[in-house]
Amino acid sequence: MKLANPAPLGLAGFAFTTWMLSMVNAGWFTGAGVPMVLALAFAYGGTCQLLAGILEFPRGNTFGTVAFSSYGAFWWSFALFVLFFSSKVPGAFVGWYLFVWGVFTFYMWLATFRTNMALQLVFLALWITFVLLAVGEWTGSSFIHTAGGYVGLLTAIFAFYLSAAEVINESYGKVVLPVGDLSPKHGAGIQAGAGESSQ
């Protein structure tokens, strides 16, 4: 029995929610847009990514399970923090929260070097985003914070592209949107970087 690939769902949930938050971080919109971001963080970025992570488990995809489950939990933790605890936590500690997510993203990025270039770009841009936002919190620099917002927008674009590539390439049975497959052998979903769809 062929199992559906949950990676495009997880990538789309991540991309959509990241895009909306990054527009706020980049200064395109004020904090008035945060309630919509929180709704997405719970429903799409959080829940759908957690679901994608669970669905990657029976496929034997360790990378997909860890990535989607972790970033789904990130969106839940972010939304809960903003709703209930943000006024009680100093900015320096928020900086550490973002930085440690950057550490996690860095070693996940290292794991993408045997997948595909599109996935590499997603994790590279996300790592830079977390670092910039962390430094912005530590220094109070609005310039660095805004830069983190713009790199976050770039991250979302890369993730949307990879999600689209996985869906469209599989639907057409050929490479319509190239992802730059680097895997030594084709596998499932984002573990092999759309290996199924690049055949």
Topology readout:
Elements: H1 7-25, H2 34-56, H3 62-85, H4 91-110, H5 117-139, H6 142-172
Helix pairs in contact: 1-2, 1-3, 1-6, 2-3, 4-5, 5-6
Describe the structure.
The chain has about 200 residues and is mostly helical. The chain has one domain (about 5-190). The chain is built from six helices and no strands. The protein has helices spanning about 5-25, 35-55, 60-85, 90-110, 115-140, 140-170. The model is unreliable at about 190-199 (pLDDT under 50).
Write out key terms for the chains shown.
199 residues, mainly alpha, disordered C terminus, 6 helices
Offer a quick outline of the entry:
The chain has helices at 7-25, 34-56, 62-85, 91-110, 117-139, 142-172.
Number of helices: 6
Strand content: under 5%
Question: What gross morphology would you assign?
Answer: globular
What's the total number of strands? 0
Helix percentage = over 70%
Poorly predicted regions = 192-199
Helix/strand/pairing category: mainly alpha
Instruction: Give the overall average pLDDT.
Output: 92
Main sheet summary? none
Integer count of domains: 1
